[in-house]
Amino acid sequence: MTRHHYSIALTGTCILLGVIIGVQYNTVKQQRISTENQRLSEVTLALNQAQGERDALQKQNETLERTLKEYQEGTYSGVEIEELQAFAGLTAISGEGVIVTMNDSSTNMGGDRNAYLVHAEDLLSVVNELNGAGAEAVSINGQRMVGKSAITCAGSIVMVNGVRVAAPFEIKAVGDPDVLQSALKFPGGVVDSLSPWGIEITIRKEAAVTVPAYTQTALVKENVKEAEE
């Protein structure tokens, strides 16, 4: 092969290699964008499901508030009042349970950064799984979750009960530690669905967990106070 023919062959090989690399890069890029869009779609779906469950709990909470008003008529005993206070989340609850820590992905994967952050929908998914597993009480960064609680976000800002919270998110739940942990870690569950996005989740079983009282309501507290007087 002459030098001229060699140069032509080398040039052709380089061009072909460049085309292959370009095609591969575009393919990977499109796959990444598609995957990120899927993640955001999943987050939206989780939000809709969580909102439905929240609405059901809110109706239950409204029923409880009506019941508390009946205290004024003296139809409930002191023990029953305490039980309803605990059910409404107006008293702290302690016992064995789990502490779940969630943090944003620490891996820089490029693309839409929002796909790698902990969203309100992710927190709602964890809370719903814990409640479904029989948790007696749940809190997020010190905010007690009750029927009227709201978890919302705008970009990277997350609000719980109207209070701004930030990662890392510490979710405390009182209940059977083994059952609560299993509810989060079962195949295809919350932990599995978030792990591809680098969301960091740790679950610790604890012998003593304290979930604080709900402090964002005035109506329920006022009703209880009037009933006790």
Secondary structure layout plus pairing:
Blueprint: H1 3-69, H2 78-87, E1 93-103, H3 120-132, E2 137-140, E3 143-144, E4 151-154, E5 157-160, E6 163-165, E7 169-174, H4 177-185, H5 190-194, E8 200-211, H6 219-228
Describe this entry's structure for a reader.
It contains 6 helices and 8 strands, in the order H-H-E-H-E-E-E-E-E-E-H-H-E-H. The longest helix has 67 residues. A hairpin with a 2-residue loop joins strand 2 and strand 3. By secondary structure, the chain is an alpha+beta fold. Helix 3 crosses helix 4. 50% of the residues lie in helices and 20% in strands. A 5-stranded antiparallel beta sheet has the order 3-2-7-1-8, with helices on one face. Strands 4-5-6 form a 3-stranded antiparallel beta sheet, covered by helices on one side.
N-to-C order of helices and strands: HHEHEEEEEEHHEH
Q: Over all CA atoms, what is the radius of gyration?
A: 26 Å
Average pLDDT works out at 76
Name the poorly predicted regions: 218-229
Lateral arrangement of strands in the main beta sheet: 3-2-7-1-8
Task: Please indicate the percent range of residues in DSSP E strands (runs of 2 or more).
Answer: 15-25%
Main sheet attributes: strand count, strand direction, barrel closure: 5 strands, antiparallel
Specify the structural class.
alpha+beta
CA distance, first residue to last residue: 105 Å
What level of helicity do the residues show? 40-55%
Number of strands: 8
Overall geometry: globular
What count of helical segments does DSSP give?
Answer: 6
